[in-house]
Write a structure and sequence with these properties.
Layout lengths: L15 H10 L20 H9 L7 E5 L14 E5 L11 H7 L4 E6 L5 H13 L1 E9 L7 H4 L13 H8 L4 E6 L5 E6 L10 H4 L4 H7 L5 E2 L1 H12 L1
Parallel strand pairs: 1-2, 1-3, 3-4, 5-7
Antiparallel strand pairs: 4-6, 5-6
């Protein structure tokens, strides 16, 4: 069977008709329910969160960002020691995260992960970030809370796309020694610290890879969801 033309073109390059065709093509995967997260109404975003945590770290802290895009976050952080990894644009290092971590010898106080929105890639990014995290350091990751099946669908079929990054949140929550909150701001931001004797990141690929948005909707109580105020109190408690 020949693959339709609109499935051979990156979503960002599709015109209006191509996006209509891809939506129609995947309509069979529709899930009737969705979450009622109102991100604009929280008045806090990932930039606010990362800056809040950085205030708790030493002035000479080392910051790593995976997936920089237009540098909206990267340029908003008052840190001198910044490394930004992106194969296309932004940051300071033009390569994939896999290639970067394969040769990296530096340790970081804070790692932000917002690269390719695919579960298996983000799993590798988190595992690699844990391996180069300083004691007491933090890892944060973006786009953990799609509001409906279109935002979550793989492959991409929606402008506001989170992909299936949420699956890594399930793994983090299931890993002994990782202290984790999924903060209900800005499409879902995960924040974690690791104990010195934490287990390696749990690998639940066999269970999670085939799952879609409906599984998340029915199992969202497995995640440590957290509002902004509670997140701030938790950060304060872990840094006092």
């Amino acid at each position: 069977m020949t693959t339709p033309d609109f499935l051979q073109v990156p979503f960002e390059e599709l015109d209006g008709e191509g996006r209509r065709q891809i939506a129609e093509h995947f309509q069979h995967a529709a899930y009737p329910r969705g979450f009622k997260w109102h991100w604009k109404g929280t008045h806090h975003n990932r930039i606010a969160l990362v800056n809040y945590v950085l205030r708790k770290l030493p002035m000479d802290c080392a910051y790593l960002e995976v997936g920089c895009g237009s540098n909206d976050l990267f340029d908003a952080l008052p840190v001198s020691d910044k490394t930004g990894v992106d194969p296309v644009k932004g940051g300071t290092v033009r390569m994939t995260s896999d290639d970067f971590f394969a040769t990296n010898t530096k340790q970081f106080d804070f790692v932000w992960i917002d690269g390719l929105h695919e579960y298996t890639q983000v799993h590798r990014d988190v595992a690699n970030a844990l391996a180069c995290l300083k004691p007491g350091g933090w890892i944060a990751l973006h786009d953990l809370m799609p509001v409906n099946w279109k935002q979550e669908h793989m492959p991409r079929m929606n402008l506001g796309w989170t992909g299936d990054v949420w699956k890594v949140a399930v793994e983090i929550a299931a890993t002994r020694g990782l202290h984790f909150k999924l903060i209900l701001i800005d499409h879902g931001v995960g924040l974690l610290q690791a104990d010195a004797d934490a287990d390696p990141l749990v690998d639940m690929e066999a269970e999670l890879l085939p799952q879609r948005f409906g599984w998340l909707y029915e199992n969202v109580d497995r995640l440590p969801l957290c509002e902004w105020g509670d997140a701030v109190a938790w950060i304060d408690a872990r840094t006092s």
